[in-house]
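input
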Amino acid sequence: RSRGATRSHAEWWRVPMHAVLLLTVAGVNHRLVSSFPAQTVRRVPCLHLMASSEHPGYNQSQPLSRSDLNDSRNAPDSAQESFSAEIYEAFEAGKSYGSSLRNRFVAPAIDDPGLPFADALTSISATLLVAGLSLSGFVPPVSWLQKADWMPAWRALPYIPPAIVHGTQLASCWVLGALAANAFEREAFCGGLGTALSRTWRAGAFAIGVLLLGTQMRTYVELTAAGLEPFLGASREVDFRLISEANSLIIDCLAQAFFLTAFRIYRWWDAQPAGPRKQ
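output
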């Protein structure tokens, strides 16, 4: 080879597996591998390329030796060490954030033990009101309000069990959303009104997502089991079913949003220190 050509030196270095993945995805310079700790579970080849003119000991009249390459490779690189530290810091920050999200559900902070039950009762009450308005014709019929044949046919009594069951399902979605939004912490009802509303609406957004996902799965299973294609335009029966489900979802979301927001505002007001407005 000519004297100015690029020289190469290949060796095996030990690097952690997660570092290999990060380096592969990010396309980090191959020299960064040497800055990671030596504990490892796999060997990977690391190819060190260096132009002879860039080597600190380069001499036009003398070719590079193996010791020169080793000295250059082992030279401290503060930029590489800093970048390596940033990778580990970001990794630890991600683990910490994931643990905090998990703890919202497995180890939630509930400063008012009665608040989840009060929220659930509010959600069920809203569902019962929607059922009454639907039977009275004030709102369009909802798909979940089906008459219970095992109940005595006395006025609207057969419609109460399905309304309670559906209200319990909506309350379950709300509780999951409240856990995700930390809506049971003291700050959610003892802080400012803006914080109370923010926690409530964030919980509602999560609950609506859970409700949509559950409704889609249930509708898909039911239509598929009946031998129907679960998309609009497949048949008149499917169109009627999907439009009815969408109508019920809209009514449920509006009713739950109104009642739970009103209740959380009252809960915030009730938790405020005694003042002229409470006397």
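quick obs: The beta strands are 6-14, 43-51.
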